[in-house]
Amino acid sequence: MKIEKIDSILKKHEYRHSEIIGIMQDVQGIENYLPEGTLRYISEKLELSLTRIFDIVTFYKAFSLVPRGRHMIKVCCGTACHLGGAMQNLDRIKRTLHVREGETTEDRMFSLETVNCLGTCALAPVIQIGEDYHDAVIPGKIDNILAAYSAGHERQEVATD
Amino acid sequence: MRGKRLQQIRTIADLESLRESILQKRDSGKTVIRTCISTGCRAKKSVKIIDGLRNEIRKHGLQDQVEIKKTGCHGFCEMGPILVVEPENIFYCRVKPEDDVDIVSKTIIDGNFIKRLQWKDPGTREHTKYERTLPVYIKQKKDISFNCGKIDPTDIEDYIASGGYSALGKALATMTPAEVVETVVASGLRGRGGGGFPTGIKWRICSAAPGDIKYIIANGDEGDPGAFMDRSLMEGDPHSIIEGMIIGAFAIGARQGFIYVRQEYPIAIEHLSIAIQQAEEYGLLGKDILGAGLDFTIKIDRGAGAFVCGEETALIISIEGRSGTPRPRPPYPAIEGLWGKPTVLNNVETLGNITKILSKGADWYSNIGTDNSKGTKIFSLVGKVRNTGLVEVEMGTTLREIIFGIGGGIRKGKRFKAVQTGGPSGGCIPISKIDMPVDYDSLRDAGAIMGSGGMIVMDESSCMVDLARYFIHFLLFESCGKCIPCREGLKQMHHILTNICEGLGERGDIETLTELGRFMTTTSLCGLGGTASNPVLSTIRYFRDEYDAHIYNKKCRAGVCKNLFEYYIDEELCNGCTLCKVKCPEKAITGKKKKPHMIDPQKCIKCGICYSLCKLEAIRVR
Ligand SMILES: Cc1cc2nc3c(=O)[nH]c(=O)nc-3n(C[C@H](O)[C@H](O)[C@H](O)COP(=O)(O)O)c2cc1C
Fold it and tell me: Which of B15, B369, B533, B618 could form a disulfide with B574 if both were Cys (CB 3.0 to 4.6 A apart)?
């Protein structure tokens, strides 16, 4: 990440220690993960220990220390989604892509994550891929949904109902 | 839209004259299409629909006669995208982008209804034409969510036109801080974040606490899975939360406020940010608000995916920029909170109640609800119920009225088994208690809690042991690990429940779970561990037979626990369409075209693909 970019984020947060979570969220918003070099730079600039920074990075689920794939798959595991079969959907995705939660496919196309609840419970079970929400997902449709992304469509139009 | 506002609102008279001028400019006969752009409808392409409608309207040269208003959540999310045409109040649901041509030409221009977009009662097959006659809405009492779905949440003038900021005006002009506190006390409002602590008392303690610097925090972390009313409020009516916070700040003497929103809610963050910026531009946040000498600003902090940060002490530590692990209370945040200063922390729905109480009075408010639970509550009614979405009802409404009256009963003609309330801290309520009134005390007596208002309905295809395991699994990963009862207790519970679900359950497991649960309840540091056993204890209490079936008969009748059931094909129902055979990834299904098929249980991995695809429901569980 460019030094100037990091500096502008730090400046926006007025170099405050209390803003460290927001600072890292901004970095991750741009880089998709938290590069170690960037964290070291932030640590020096803010005079905030690396231990404290890594404590925070590893505590909050949203942060990632490794780069992630082009399409972020978030399988919602909220209660409504769970009852609707989220685990079977998750199993299907794992088998199709040969990855586990927290991993990225070898071709860097997909990263797979589970989330506690996306707050779209009325559409359960839901998976989010990038910015797109897929509602009422069933195991039998997973392969079609994924194929549309592999085929290179950024915003694709799979019918999910 | 509007240019930057140069003239700020400096007095209450300014506010009233602005309101009048906005209302005067309005043409009540004008056609307005209200479309939801909240997360639910947006997921189903409502933004694309709006673009399409805009184009159609322009094509017909109607841009001056027809306005499209982007609103927050209408509540009936399952039927989204939802669209209402005013002034006629025509209601359309499940709208698709390609419907834009018809909506403009048939409804807007010709004034006709489009039948396929109307809501059809799945039972009586009757169509509903208007939003005001929709059965799911008629039975609700929308006080707090009134503006959601009606106003444009990104336009402060729309909020002001609907009476916004008049409660603040009234408080600043006619009341002392102490009078505001006592009004909230008298209203009987209790916190909507889970604990149900009386809000007025919390404010009173904080305002009496010594110190010049105080803070007010809105808790928009909404961590309970299955709950999304806070998201809807933040997305659909952000100014009502801001106004509630300013009133709170006046009451306790705070000059700085924070809204803590989970990062999974980007639209809520966006709408709140816009609202704060507009309130600043209009002079409703900042220095000397409405000329009453009140200085107050609000900052948004984003959560970073930690459930425990919804707990008040952890949330405060997170705002301070550290990993959010709870600390022992007392001291309570009202005495010693953010940066050690007295801090009021309220749930966003709680704050949404404040403007109503101030403008309509404590008496009006305390007449709604039951003796100990006042006002209305928004529930997210989801799961196996027909009409899913948000419902707002008076406290004390029965579960039956909510689930069967408003929710329309169970989907696909299946049978009701239980309703789970209160998220991971809550419990499951069985059919025998369906006529119970929903209020703080009744729910607690039944072994559940109000929590933030999630109501997850389950039918015979839901396994109660699996559900208990699900919540314990959830909490196991969200426990911060600081105290031993929670950290180790959850691990052991999870171990036992997983064994039971995998067919390795043994005699004595239920007793161990019960004992562990009691121990965790009494010794955990915060509410996470303190209430963690509720889902387990309540399912043991009401569904012990299911635990027994798992442990002794090694059967999961619901067809959820993979080792304890198998799929088979009902020969009577199967018409040999071959879909399951073609889609089975393990080639476990055999059969000739137009002849009943068969599943080889040896090869079947229970991935559920055939079960989910069969239109005839011929794939069964045993
Ligand atoms: C583990 C845990 C998680 C919580 N999560 C939330 C939450 O997501 N939202 C919320 O408003 N309150 C949550 N609470 C309750 C808060 O600690 C606090 O009581 C509440 O926000 C106070 O607001 P109220 O008085 O308006 O209800 C949680 C409590 C615990 C123990």
Answer: B618
Mean pLDDT of chain B: 95
CATH superfamily, domain A71-157, is Glutaredoxin (3.40.30.10)
Domain B566-621, CATH 3.30.70.20 — does that match?
yes
Spell out which residues of chain A touch residue B304, defining contact as CB-CB under 8 Å: 21, 24-25, 60-63
The answer as to CATH 3.40.50.11540 being correct for domain B163-361 is: yes
Whether CATH 3.90.1150.180 fits B26-134? no
A22 exposed, middle or buried (CB, 10 Å; 0-12, 13-18, 19+)? buried
pLDDT tens for each residue of B435-491 = 999 999 999 999 999 999 999 999 999 999 999 999 999 999 999 999 999 999 999
> Under an 8 A CB cutoff, do A83 and B307 touch?
no
Q: Do domains B464-553 and B566-621 have the same CATH topology?
A: no
Strands B416-421 vs B294-302: parallel, antiparallel or unpaired = unpaired
Distance of alpha carbon B307 from the chain centroid: 15
pLDDT for position B412: 85
Which class is B376-459 in CATH? alpha beta
ipTM > 0.90 (yes/no): yes
Closest residue of B to A16, CA-based?
B321
CB of B316 closer than 8 Å to CB of B338: yes
For residue B123, what pLDDT band results from cuts at 50, 70 and 90? Answer: confident
Q: Is the CB of B193 under 6 A from ligand 1?
A: yes
Q: What is the CATH number of domain B464-553?
A: 1.20.1440.230
Contact yes or no for A21 and B454 at CB 8 A: no
Helix B238-252 vs helix B199-208: crossing angle, to nearest 10: 40
Summarised one tens digit per residue, pLDDT across range A4-50 is 999 999 999 999 999 999 999 999 999 999 999 999 999 999 999 99
Report which of B257, B260, B259 is spatially closest to residue B296, judged by C-alpha positions.
B257
